[in-house]
Design a protein that fits this description.
Helix content: 25-40%
Distance between the termini: 35 Å
Radius of gyration: 15 Å
Number of helices: 5
Strand order of the largest sheet: 1-2-3-5-4
Order of helices and strands: HHHEHEEHEE
Length: about 170
């Protein structure tokens, strides 16, 4: 984790992503499929649903894969083996693209929702699980450098939805 932090959160790395316009060569659907395939090595039954995504989008592929891997790792870590995990990708209603990681496990306590992306923050559910409290912080920083947002919300029926929103070229 420290190696990833040094590589992705160094001021030079973040500045270069923000300054350098990436080529239109990353398939958002392929990003989702690759992340799901890697996570399926740890747990079967992770599904992907992609609707209306552009064929290509601009982003740092390694950074976006890292974000999805962090979100999936958390979903796997903090849910039981029988809990469904789904990746979704679609055009966002406000424009841009949204990539979602949804699980039907235990929701995040309301008093922790606003702190999840804070550097070093570990919620009550993290007790007994290895971690540094830096994964979600790092994921949010990478998404923000791309001009996007990373958010979380509890689902009414149970579980949570992490949402990466990214702008796309018109």
């Amino acid at each position: 984790m420290l190696e990833l932090i040094n590589e992705y959160l160094s001021p030079e790395r973040l500045a270069s992503i923000g300054r350098k316009r990436q080529a239109d060569e990353v398939s958002p659907e392929a990003l989702l499929e690759t992340a799901a395939e890697q996570a399926r090595q740890r747990r079967a039954g992770i599904t992907v649903r992609a609707e209306g995504l552009p064929q290509w989008m601009r982003c740092d592929p390694q950074g976006m894969r890292l974000c999805l891997d962090i979100l999936l790792d958390n979903a796997l870590k903090y849910t039981n083996d029988n809990v469904a995990i789904e990746l979704q990708g679609r055009k966002a209603s406000e424009g841009g693209v949204e990539l979602l990681v949804i699980d039907r496990g235990t929701p995040v306590p309301d008093d922790e929702l606003g702190k999840l992306f804070d550097k070093g923050y570990r919620g009550k559910a993290a007790a007994g699980h290895a971690g540094s409290g830096l994964g979600l912080y790092m994921a949010r920083n990478v998404v923000e450098v791309h001009g996007g947002t990373l958010s979380v919300e509890n689902l009414p029926e149970s579980g949570k939805k992490f949402r990466i929103w990214l702008p796309i070229a018109a």
